[in-house]
Model the fold of this input.
Amino acid sequence: MSAPIGQPRVRLPQQVKVGETIEVRTLISHIMETGQRRNQEGAIVPRDIIRNFVCTMDGAVVFSMDLAPAISANPYIAFPLKVTGPATLEMVWTNDAGEQRKASAQLRPS
Amino acid sequence: MRQKQMGRRQGLALAAGLIGLSLVPRPASAQMSAAARAAVDKVLAGRSAEEAGITLRLPPIAENGNTVPMTILVDSPMTDADHIKAIHVFADKNPTPEVASFKLTPAMGRAQVDTRIRLGQTQDVIAVAETSTGRMLIGHVEVKVTIGGCGG
Done:
């Protein structure tokens, strides 16, 4: 059984303008079990991590990341994005078992 | 008095020389562990990497290796014709050297990634960036870790 994946959080600047480069900040709660740790009986706790993150803008991939056990628990991922107009951002986190969490956000330039 | 001043000047010159020496960049490949070397070579796939263009922002001393903030910036216009396609990050002395691989696009406007990483001990963090024009860039920075962050 894989560890629970928390509700993802996505943060965009409150006001965005066309042409500016903003920072998209994301956080998802997850234990990110490395597969190196031993439990009290001395058995290795199997690896269980968020292994992939993808962000699309109106369906086109703009940024993605492959994660390894060296990413801290509750992965924080932030990246820049150039605002070209109103758009829908979709983000997907996938764990080792293939389970996914999704979040979306709207870009509404003023 | 004159004698004394000369002495001070020589002392300053010596100090400047020493600082200069310590600023000579070490090649990233110099003392990489075998595992990290293999992981970096896999990404390079026979291409040679220039030590240029990559800024790794990590604290010089990390009190807690479990969560070390990391920002990587690469000089790039991020246009369709010339942009950073990927950034690969390695931790020289972690149990497995691979830390993360990022895929970037011109839609980002700037070649930057931010995350938090685990470091098992004091070591170099290495970043390799791949441009759309086929250039490979490499950079590295040392992080001193007080409490390791890998299992144990």
Chain B has one domain: 28-147. Chain B touches chain A at residues 66-68, 78, 91, 94-96, 98-105, 107-110, 112-119, 149-152 (CB under 8 Å). Residues 40 and 128 of chain B are 8 Å apart (CA to CA).
